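Checked the freezer inventory, then went back to the computational side. Two predictions to log before the end of the day. The first one is the construct we discussed on Monday; recording sequence and tokens without edits.
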Amino acid sequence: MDERRIGDVLLARGLATQEQLAQAALDQERYGGAIGRQLILRQVCSRLDLYSALADLWDAPLVDLIAEPPETELGTAISHRQALDQGWVAWRRTGSQLVVATTVTPTERIASAARSMYGAGSVTFRTTTDWDLWNAVERVHRGTLLFKSQDELAEAQPASSARAGLTGWQSRTPLSLIPLIAIAAAVSPRLTFVVVLTLANFVFGAAILFKTVAAVMAPWQAYRTQRRRLAELRERSRRGLPPVWSPHRDDADLPIFTILMPVYHEANIVTKLLANIGALDYPRSKLDVMLLMEEDDHETIAAARAMNPPDYVRLVVVPPGTPQTKPRACNYGLALARGTYAVIYDAEDRPDPNQLRLAVEAFDRDEFERTYLGSKQKPLACVQGKLYYFNADYNVLTRMFAIEYAHWFEAMLPGMDATGVPLPLGGTSNHFHVDRLLELGAWDPFNVTEDADLGLRASVKGYRVAVIDSGTGEEACSQTPAWIRQRTRWIKGYIVTAAVNTRHPIRFARNTGVMGVIGMVGLIMATPLAFLVYPLCLGFTAATYVGVQFLGLYLPRVVVVTSVTTFLFGNALMIVSAMIAATSRYNWRIGIFAIFSPVYWFLHSTAAWRASFQVLRDPHGWEKTPHGLSEDYESEAHT
């Protein structure tokens, strides 16, 4: 093997200067990794030039695995994960002689492993690029990757998958209510009215109570955090540790972070998407960015390829399959991920520049507290950033959407965390520990609200979810029809998630405890039910008041008072708490629009009824939300 260094070869070939090599060496010292990767990132030389030089150094001629892929039998003899991790793959075999294509320095250790694995007599080496290896492995293992992205969860953990849809009793029960109510109304109209009114108000009141209590508990979470920090200071003093926790990670020690970006029919914003990711403050040599595109989305694929993205971005074309959903695409990318951690960003997302660093720090801190400070908390599976809308003041609909999200991330989630209720995830800016995500079974491709489902599954498996103090700007849907389709999908996913987890309700209660049951009933189940009964509550409350006051309708006083109080007081509570949260997140010009929440909830009700019909007819159908409708609008609302 040639004893020269790669820099000498590139210098001799005129592909790099001394200054460029010196700068790449400084980058390597600061950020870690191979100097060749730093040269490619700095665009000093091409990937092909670098590996051609390495081929000379290693005395292993270059081979193009795209034009000459590995023999299928050799490629499938080891897993795709093993091939990607070890950096080499068996390419050709003639009798007892094995040819290995490698992206790493050929060594006797690799030759010995290859001889043992394939029963070969001798091993020779060829050089290939890392991208060629990745494409070859993906091609050879396509069937396995499709299975992992579509059916693995359903096969390995059928009780956790929505593939089977609703059980018989789950689908029959709601349908049987309609004739039962009709018969009851024919026999005793007044009693039926009282019972339905009472049940509707109970459901609506339970949902309001859960959300209000969660919001009120947010200050308690801040107090608990402060108490925990004081206890940590005392423990640190006792152990002789520095008073303030520090991650103690230089850039060179940061882990590889995989960024999954599923896009579909979004050629109009794919350029800005990569610009937003490019603004992240994280070493480029530690980024593993995958743009996940569907095979039938020719326009987006063409736009992405035309951009000539930077080296740390891989363009992944997800093969056709069923169902064609965002979680399926994310599962496909996860199977190819290189990172210790992985995050999902949607097409229009604008994450805070330091978000990846804060996520790593959160996992490091959790590990430190549990290892050295005796913390009894469950291990972290995921931390999520707070979402806000960069077009919050675009129109009335975006204002209402912004108010809703502010109430969720600034009030409800911290309050739920304080009580120990499992946290459902948002659809983006979720930072996962990859090994734990794989242990959970990754995302359910048959659940159209895969994020909420995964948050509950993490709790069932003994993990927890936390929120970090970092924001991600999203584009609020600014058109009512598109908003209703999006919200239909979300509510349908909540219904399906509730159905999956209540197939075996006793087992679920045993695994999650009281707080898990409260979260399931008070949020996942009560949210769609509250939206379904909202028009009934409003109509029944108005009819009750008018009938009793002016038409001589007799109803038990407790029913009248409870109905009016629950509806009016419940609406007032939600308006006030949402107004406070939105004013804190944005400003009073956004917060004041919370007074229109009762009207906004009619849109939710429309989406909820659509979702109910779709659950029975098309539980896995994915209604795509269009992005880029107000992409160029710059709001002045968020702080």
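The second is the one RB wanted added to the comparison set:
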Amino acid sequence: MDPLPPSPVNWDSLDALVLDFVRSDRLIAPPASPSPPSSPSSSTTTATSSSPSTSTSSSYCSRILIRRARRALEAGDVDAALALLRAHAPAALLDHRLLFHLHKQRFVELVRRGTEADREAALDCLRTALAPCALDAYPEAYEEFKHILLVLIYDQDDQSSPVVNEWSIKRRFELAGLLSSILRAHLQAYDPILSMSLRYLISIHKVFCSRQGVSSPISDLTERLLFEDRDPPAVTQECSVEAPPFDEVDVQALAHAVELTRQGAIDSLKFAKGDLYQAFQNELCRMKMDLSLLDKLVHEYCIYRGIVQGCSHALPGTADMQCSQNIDVSFINNQGANNEAQLDCESAGKQDGGCCTSDITHHDSWSKRLRRVRSSTSGQGRRKRWRGRADDLNYAFETPVDANRDTLSPAFDMDEDVVIGEHDSVLDTGLSDTRNMQDQKYEVILEMRDLTRKGMASKVVDEINSIDPDFFSQNPILLFQLKQVEFLKLVAGGDHVAALKVASAHLGPLAASNQALLKPLKETLVTLIQLNEDVLTKAVSLPVLASSLQLAISRRLGIEEPQLMKIVRTTLHTHTEWFKLQMCKDRFDHFLKIDSLKEIDPPVSRTMSKVLTDECGNGSSQITTCSSGKVLDEGSSPQESSEVVCDESAILKVMEFLALPRADAIQLLIQYSGNAETVIQQIFS
């Protein structure tokens, strides 16, 4: 198992981004009836609606339109793409540059078909569409028009012809990508924030690993998820060669954020009329992702976190991912911003080798526990059904959407949310024993997590001991944390005598066997003199503890964490290290909600995070060494040796004149006492 990097992750913030993603792309089935305004689902939607990517009905329809038009062009059906644009985005055809490209490809495809009727249609296309459009599309268009006429006399199999590139199938995909870029900006049909954040984080991760000479432990995932090639950039219709006076800070920020040349960044800003963040979105969405793989990763994460039902209750034709039974999603965002802070490290260490799950998973206590869970949650747990992606354009444009919920209307012909109660027969539908056992595991794990979020630590300890008496011997730090919560609740309630009994019976012995726990024990005991009812919430993060407990129990039962968690954890770490190298703050981290994924916890939680990291021996980054021998350690910065403070204008000047990354520009300035002119003279001398 890969070691965990030290960077904390706020899984609640990731939950919110994932929920926004599945709602924006309508990957979950709609509810049977609108929820009351005060319902948890409504509050969650409201909380995420301020995101710049939160989709309206129009944005969702536009993204489907773009995908449909793209597929039509890739298949060579230009007529279908034009019909879609005329019906749903006629304003896009006012771009004569785009229209010329479409008619030119239509002409080639008609000739390619080879029938007499198609040849006549091709000539008609020349006369009525292509020639008129070539007159005012752009300066080079008429020359391109004359050149494309050669398609009429050179065979498509002739590899030595002057129009071999025009015959190439690759032209279809280039045009499809260009159309996607133009429509996306024209219709403001940007992908959800989760999708753009992953593109950004993974691209930085790849660059960081390449430049620092380290190998990536998630390369098998990132290579499949984010492709190397990109869609062509959208271009402005005007032909002015003079660039507007953009702020050089914006130009350099955009260029290095999405790996553009300086001129490429200027062109992108021109197309976005100087709007840096719109240009940034345009460039991010040019990066091609495997959407089906992303859906699978999100589905797996949703099952693990209890956002949607597992495969036992998935709709026909959905992704074949982990199967589970899921609990109410109302916890999302209720606790505010809290991060995971590496509290799951304890469960990833030495105990795995000595843990046998077979006795646990088939123990009678699991069946008894499940009956108690089903009885206690009867009529309460509402689960979302996974719908999967269905790019039905007719449906998208005809189905009304409740703007307050941003989910499908009840008119959608899918099963409604289901309340799993004591008498429901969901687990008794003929599924295999293995599937039922998996469902039982998840139901118990998620209930333990939710009880921990509510601060019911004593009950959690009792329940887990009844299920698996050996669990806390394998996870003593989790036991310390739960007893810590129990202690703090008693202190907050004024029962200091009972609190001291908990400390004497549990916290003291645990700290005696682990010296690293002495400091958090002392910090916990200090709360005895703090007469504050909020002592619990200020001292410990319950969502952090709940996530750690969930991960520990899951691994104890042989359930691995979702791959999306591994990607986010690792790429957030390299994002932090990358901007240490750049010696600046990320201009786009707030826009992409990356800052919320890194938010810190209360002081005691941070102390416990350090304890867990030291205990597991996983203090180093998940980035592993390669032939160069480089490896990153927690808190270290590859730029620590720099003593010269460089002026920002000097950094920008060196970056601009020498076309260098920020880190390289800073290194050169350090060598020459921060003098930009000296650096430039030395390079060109």
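For RB: The two ends are 52 Å apart (CA to CA). Residues 58-187 form one domain. Let me know if you want it refolded.
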